[in-house]
Amino acid sequence: MYTTKLKNIRAGFSKLLLTAFFLLVAGSAGAQEAKVLKGRIVDTDGNPIVGAVINVAEASRIALSDKEGYFSLKNVKNADELCISSVGYLSATAIAEFTHDFKVVMEEDKDLYAHTTPVAFGRKPIKLITEATSVVTGQELVKHPVTVLQNAFTSTVTGVETYEQRSEPGWSETAMFIRGIRTMNAQARAPLVIVDNVERDLSFLDAYPIENVTILKDAAACAIYGMRGANGAIIVTTKRGETGKTKINFTQEFGFQTLSGVPENQNSYNMALTRNQVAYLDGGKRYIRMRILRNTVG
């Protein structure tokens, strides 16, 4: 009788453990189930922020806040990390919580002059910049479908002129001038190009790894480079790693180049006529005798 009672106790204890195990598994599955997250984005005064971008870290699920600051984001799991950004506000992060009053508070980016900009061998606060400079970000450069990076400078920064001298499939040689041509020496017109504090060619640099490009235009900005900066300088800063979860961006592009029009050249007879006319107006001798040319042509 004692043995039968012990077996019943063991069987009941096993059933209890099995039930607890299934409840734990069901609870975990329920906690990881993707749901629709609803919340609101406000500033420090409680006013709604319109057009804030909310996305799940390491995912492509994005939502925008409406005029009242409310948003609805699908396929969100409990404890997912959210990244929130908006123009004029500091970026914020939050952990997803499925509550009826989920709210994210964003701080206003009040001191815009606290940001820095690249200068020669370092960075400088924008409020202290007195030199003539122009800055374009890598995000803006990737919007221009150009084969060579510097061909996009004409439409993105001021004071820079680019001329495509010669090209071949997949590559072209582009001449750059900052505030026009500064010397009659054709071999010394190019500006100084510095990529991450190292002088190098800009033609083989892609737009995607670039953080920003700073154009130094006047003598005060290029004084540290001496005569090497006589034609201006282009300071390129590439992207750096950031803290947080891994982000991978993949972009694939293809295109082709073709001539918009091929000029029609003169034949030898018409060319001789033109040169003879030029020589006659200039008071010189004829370029070629037309009688010999007529017999040659036919």
UniProtKB/TrEMBL annotation:
Main location: membrane
Residue ranges of every copy of the TonB-dependent receptor plug domain listed in the record: 129-233
Organism superkingdom: Bacteria
Cellular component terms (Gene Ontology): cell outer membrane
Signal peptide interval: 1-31
Membrane topology listed for this record: Multi-pass membrane protein
Compartment annotation: Cell outer membrane
Pfam families per the UniProt record, alphabetical: CarbopepD_reg_2, Plug
UniProt keyword list: Cell outer membrane, Membrane, Receptor, Signal, Transmembrane, Transmembrane beta strand, Transport
Name of the featured protein: TonB-dependent receptor
Species name: Bacteroides reticulotermitis JCM 10512
